[in-house]
């Protein structure tokens, strides 16, 4: 005959085993949470859109590849629209963010070149860029503001006013600034397409190599892993 003490110990062991089995379904043994890959949105004009280049040679594709080589498994989404002024970009900002399907870990704002090339009022470009930064900060989205520089033939007064927009807004919003998106590329015919304005594939390589440290710094620490 089986004693009552043996039956008691047997039932107790079965209850412990069942509890451990249930716990293993909820928390897999040895499993660790994988960090979310950071999402970066390049919000701009033809320079971020990759005008005149195949998709794999454009800014967003090459930036994504460079970040991954640096150990940041980021996804970089293309939010560039060729020809956009700052006002036009502002008009599509909200639905563009919705279209991402998730809140980005960083938005690179690269705008203003088309306003400058058309000689549009600097105050207008500044007001719209200010509104874009305000909207992104209201959503608690980190921003990297990429600057542009005016062509000298627009006159000294226009050039000074336009070039001052980016440092002024970066300071007002306390956001990091990359001084000149086309740094190292502008006015170099070997790095520019036949239209004389847009970077070729070699030019994009230089832009990406120079901006990567700023992009990395602009990401929150947890998104740099």
UniProtKB/TrEMBL annotation:
Gene3D superfamilies the UniProt entry points to: SGNH hydrolase (3.40.50.1110)
Signal sequence bounds: none
GO molecular function, one term: phosphatidylcholine lysophospholipase activity
Any single Pfam family the record assigns to this protein: Lipase_GDSL_2
Database matches in InterPro entries: Ester_Hydrolysis_Enzymes (IPR051532), SGNH_hydro (IPR013830), SGNH_hydro_sf (IPR036514)
Domain of life where this protein originates: Bacteria
CDD domains: Lysophospholipase_L1_like
Domain SGNH hydrolase-type esterase, chain residue ranges per copy: 42-204
PANTHER family cross-referenced by the UniProt entry: THIOESTERASE 1/PROTEASE 1/LYSOPHOSPHOLIPASE L1, THIOESTERASE 1_PROTEASE 1_LYSOPHOSPHOLIPASE L1
Descriptive protein name: Arylesterase
Record organism: Sphingomonas glacialis
